[in-house]
Amino acid sequence: MNIVWHCEDSVGAKMAGPGIRAVELARRLAQRHDVTLVAEGATSLRGEGFRVATKLSLSGADVFISQGFGFPLPQLLRFGGRVVLDLYDPVQLEHLARLGPKPTSDQRVSLTALRHRLKYVIGRADHVLCASRPQRALWLGWLGALGRLTPEALQGDPEASRLLAVVPFGLPEEPPTAGGRPLRAAIGALASDKVALWSGGMWDWMDPALAVRAAAIAQKHEPSLKLALIAGARPGPAAMNMRGAVEQARAAAEGLQFVHFLDTWIPYPERGPWLLDADFAVSAHKPSLESELAFRTRLLDCLWAALPAACTAGDVLAAEGEQQGWARSAAPGDVDALAAAMIALCDPAQNERARAAARKAAAGRTWQRSSATLLALLDAPPPPRPKLVSARTPALALTVAKKALRKLKR
Fold first, then answer.
1. Residue 389: its pLDDT value, please?
2. How remote is the C-alpha of 38 from its chain's centroid?
3. Pick from 373, 386, 382: which is nearest to 88 by CA?
4. Is the pLDDT of residue 325 over 60?
5. Is residue 215 within 8 Å of residue 259, measured between CB atoms?
6. Which domains, ranges and CATH numbers included, belong to the chain?
């Protein structure tokens, strides 16, 4: 099977979540299929089992996989093969969180365009992918509204698992290996210091300022505590390089000598030693719909490195982390509770118990397991698409129109 995977984000040494997901899943699909990854920076990848390109062409493709953005829609309109739409990233909710309560006219237009594009690509997709059960509920609503949940689609598949499949963001099969003390060297920390690491981007819906304020409280109980925040610009589209959260965090950290901002983005292959050099991770977000539907890559990195996490509650991974014992969570905005979580993870015994829980939880979250779900979808026929009312059946069309008109009058 000839598969073209298009990623709007950039790939290479430095990648954010969408690029990482595209590369990791393409690697595993390429073990059984002929795969081409199309993305900015793709030609920098070496030794992969798939082909690379920077310009999209669907000529000769049997399957097109995409997040639905970053390419001209006419290419999809002309494509006759199978379409897999990867909606693991709730882009509309991110957009809403970024706009805030007083969007400009241009921002309103952008949001409207995004929604219309989502309607089209969801309507065209043969399979939709998401990362969690809460996300699945969101996209089931869209599929139902767009008329995709039909008797034909559900025949033999009453849960619509072929139309809408949960394919979580995964973890490498091999755990990270240590390589020096890069994090402690970067911030001048001693081996005896307790180091908390903010390892993900500082998007405007995140709350690094809360992490700074919580660390200030925790540091009074644990004087050896240091907080390191990765504050480099995100690789990829410039529109994602949001600085509001960074500025708020820097303002909160003014005068705090134990808080360090690192203006870098850690290369994907090198992140293991940085994670292993920390005592625990910290992650915080503001209240929003994005947080409810998010699947935080940074928390998955914690599982991969058996790194305990102090985080705000609200997303599915934070809830699972609290339940499984590898994370301690606090309500969004609750600085005292987040500080208490950080203080607890400074305790060696509690920290080690959280690490053991993380190792156990990581076992079932590999990229191989996620790719197996996608491969199974491709091995079977796609669910049938809705039947359109044909002009050759005027009686049926008239009956449908009359019934719809009666319902509208009620």
1. 44
2. 19
3. 373
4. yes
5. yes
6. 2-171+367-409 (3.40.50.2000), 182-362 (3.40.50.2000)
